[in-house]
C-alpha cells in the first residue's frame, strides 16, 4: 500500500513539473521536505554505481579530514593538563593533589551535563554555525587556562572548557550519521575517533616542545602549553565556517543532483536524517523511554571510563622501564598507534558484516586481558605489554559503540538526543577515572586498575552481550509479525514517524 502511494505521489509530482528542468524540480522537492526525483533514472546500474562511488569519495574528502582535525584539537585541549602537571602546574598554583583531581573532574561534569542538549542546538542552528562557534569559545577558555593564578581560576576555566566542548563529539557523530548509510558510517566514525589516539601519541611531544618557552613573557612553560594550543583551536574555529558544511538538504558544496542522490540513498536505507523535522518534546521523551538508549549508555560507560583512565597511568609505566624525557614520550606512541589502526580496522569490518555487537564482545576481551596484566604483574615489561592490549580493547569500541547506537535509532531529533545521552552518560565517568589513580599507590595503582577492569567486565563486555541478544530477540519478533499491530490503522506519514519502531526496521546486532 505504501509503495502504491509513493508511486501515485511521484506520478502526480511529475505531472506538475512537466517542462521544469531536473535541478529545479530537485530544489522544489527538497525545499518542501519531499523525496526529490531521481537524476539517474535513465542510467544503467553500472553507471549509477560509478556515480555513487564518486559521490562517496566527494563526501569523504569534504567532511572527514576537517572534522577529524576538530576532534584532534578537542582531545589535545582536554588532556594537556596532564602535560602541564609534569611541567609544574600544581606547584606554581599552590594546589594540593586533591584540588588537581577536582580540576580534572569538573570538566567532565559540565561536559556531560550539556551533551544531551547539544545535538538539538546543532540541528536548529546548522553545523556550519554551531560547530565553529563552540570551537571559538573553547579556544578562548583554553587560552585563559594559561592566565590563571590559583585553583579557583583553573577550576572555572575547566568548567567552561567542558561546557563549550560538549557539542563536538556527539555533534559530529550525529552529523556524520546524517550523511552516510548505516553500512558506511562505522569506518568514518572510526577514522574521526582515531584522532584521539593520534592526540595521545604526539600530545606529550608537542607539549614538551612548547614547554621550552618557559620564562618568555614572564609565563611558565605549562602556561604556554595552554595559551598556544588554545590559540590554535581559536584559529581553527575561525576557519571552520568555510570548512564545515550543513546537512545534505542545505549543503552548498553539492550540486542539486548530488543533494538528491544523498537524500535518496538515505531514504533507501530507511533513514529520515535529511528531512525538515521540527523539534517536539515527544522526540525527547521517545529517546528517554527507549530501552536501547540506556543499554547503549551502559556499554559506552564501560568504554569511556577506561578511556579516560588510560592516559593517567601510562607515563608511570614507561618511567618504570627506566626511560625519561624524549625517549619516554616516544615509547608512549606505539600503544596509541596500534589502537588507531585497530579502531579503523574494526570500523571497516563492522560496516561489512553488521556484527557490531560481536565486535564489542570480542575486542573487549583484549582490554580485559590487558588490565588483568596491569593488575596482576609487578614487571614493568609485562605492564607495558598490558598497555597495548588495554588500548586495543578501549579505543575501537568507542567508535563502534557510537555507530552501533546510531544504526539502531531512527528519527531526526531522536537519534541526536539518544547520542547525546549515551555519550554524556559515558563521559560523566571521567569523574570516576580522574579520582581512582591515587599517587601514593604508584606504580601498581591497584585501585585504579581494579575499577577499570570492573568497568570493562560488567559494563562493556556484559552490557554488549545483553544488548546484542535483546536486539536479536527483537528482530525475531519483527520477522514473525509480532510487531505488525504497531502500524494498524496508521497512515503512511504516521508509520514513517515511528522511526526505529516501524516493524520493517531491522536492528543492527
TrEMBL record:
Q: Which GO molecular function, any one, fits this protein according to its record? A: transmembrane transporter activity
List the keywords (alphabetical): Membrane, Transmembrane, Transmembrane helix, Transport
Q: Where is the composition biased (Basic and acidic residues)?
A: 1-18
Q: How does it sit in the membrane?
A: Multi-pass membrane protein
Identify this protein by name.
Retrograde regulation protein 2
The segments labelled Disordered in the record are: 1-23
- Cited InterPro entries: MFS, MFS_dom, MFS_trans_sf
Record-level GO cellular component terms = membrane
User: What main location does UniProt list?
Assistant: membrane
| Compartments, as annotated in UniProt | Membrane
Membrane-spanning residues where?
129-151, 157-177, 189-210, 222-244, 294-318, 330-350, 357-376, 382-405, 417-439, 451-472
Please state every residue range assigned to the domain named Major facilitator superfamily (MFS) profile: 63-475
Highest taxon above the source species: Eukaryota
Amino acid at each position: 500500500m505504501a509503495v502504491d502511494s509513493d508511486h501515485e505521489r511521484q506520478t502526480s509530482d511529475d505531472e506538475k513539473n512537466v517542462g521544469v528542468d531536473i535541478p529545479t524540480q530537485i530544489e522544489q522537492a527538497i525545499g518542501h521536505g519531499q523525496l526529490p526525483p531521481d537524476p539517474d533514472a535513465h542510467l544503467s546500474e553500472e553507471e549509477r554505481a560509478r556515480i555513487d562511488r564518486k559521490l562517496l569519495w566527494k563526501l569523504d574528502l569534504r567532511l572527514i579530514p576537517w572534522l577529524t582535525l576538530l576532534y584532534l584539537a578537542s582531545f589535545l585541549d582536554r588532556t594537556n593538563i596532564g602535560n602541564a602537571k609534569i611541567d609544574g602546574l600544581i606547584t606554581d598554583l599552590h594546589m594540593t593533589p586533591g584540588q588537581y583531581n577536582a580540576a580534572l573532574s569538573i570538566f567532565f561534569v559540565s561536559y556531560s551535563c550539556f551533551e544531551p542538549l547539544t545535538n538539538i542546538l546543532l540541528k536548529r542552528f546548522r553545523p556550519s554555525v554551531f560547530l565553529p562557534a563552540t570551537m571559538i569559545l573553547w579556544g578562548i577558555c583554553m587560552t585563559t587556562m594559561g592566565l590563571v593564578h590559583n585553583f579557583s581560576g583553573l577550576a572555572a576555566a575547566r568548567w567552561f572548557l567542558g561546557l563549550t566542548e560538549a557539542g563536538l563529539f556527539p555533534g559530529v557523530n550525529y552529523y556524520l550519521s546524517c550523511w552516510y548509510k548505516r553500512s558506511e558510517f562505522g569506518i568514518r566514525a572510526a577514522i574521526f575517533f582515531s584522532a584521539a589516539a593520534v592526540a595521545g601519541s604526539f600530545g606529550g611531544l608537542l607539549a614538551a616542545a612548547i614547554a621550552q618557552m618557559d620564562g618568555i613573557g614572564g609565563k611558565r612553560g605549562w602556561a604556554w602549553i595552554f595559551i598556544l594550543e588554545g590559540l590554535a583551536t581559536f584559529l581553527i574555529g575561525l576557519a571552520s565556517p568555510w570548512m564545515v558544511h550543513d546537512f545534505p538538504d542545505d549543503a552548498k558544496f553539492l550540486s542539486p543532483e548530488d543533494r538528491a542522490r544523498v537524500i535518496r540513498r538515505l531514504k533507501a536505507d530507511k533513514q529520515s536524517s535529511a528531512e525538515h523535522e521540527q523539534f517536539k518534546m515527544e522526540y525527547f521523551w521517545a529517546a528517554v523511554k527507549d530501552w536501547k538508549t540506556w543499554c547503549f549508555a551502559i556499554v559506552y560507560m564501560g568504554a569511556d571510563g577506561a578511556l579516560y583512565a588510560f592516559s593517567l597511568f601510562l607515563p608511570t609505566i614507561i618511567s618504570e622501564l627506566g626511560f625519561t624525557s624524549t625517549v619516554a614520550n616516544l615509547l608512549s606512541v606505539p600503544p596509541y598507534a596500534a589502537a588507531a589502526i585497530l579502531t579503523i580496522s574494526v570500523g571497516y569490518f563492522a560496516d561489512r558484516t553488521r556484527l557490531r555487537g560481536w565486535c564489542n564482545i570480542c575486542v573487549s576481551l583484549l582490554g580485559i586481558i590487558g588490565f588483568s596484566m596491569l593488575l596482576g604483574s609487578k614487571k614493568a615489561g609485562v605492564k607495558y605489554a598490558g598497555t597495548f592490549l588495554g588500548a586495543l580493547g578501549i579505543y575501537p569500541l568507542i567508535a563502534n559503540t557510537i555507530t552501533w547506537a546510531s544504526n539502531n535509532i531512527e528519527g531526526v531529533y531522536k537519534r541526536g538526543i539518544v547520542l547525546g545521552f549515551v555519550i554524556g552518560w559515558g563521559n560523566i565517568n571521567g569523574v570516576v577515572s580522574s579520582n581512582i589513580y591515587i599517587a601514593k599507590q604508584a606504580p601498581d595503582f591497584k585501585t585504579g586498575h581494579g575499577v577499570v577492569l570492573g568497568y570493562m567486565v560488567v559494563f562493556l563486555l556484559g552490557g554488549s552481550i545483553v544488548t546484542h541478544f535483546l536486539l536479536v530477540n527483537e528482530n525475531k519478533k519483527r520477522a514473525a509479525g509480532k510487531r505488525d499491530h504497531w502500524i494498524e490503522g496508521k497512515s503512511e506519514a504516521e508509520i514513517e514517524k515511528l522511526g526505529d519502531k516501524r516493524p520493517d526496521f531491522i536492528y543492527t546486532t
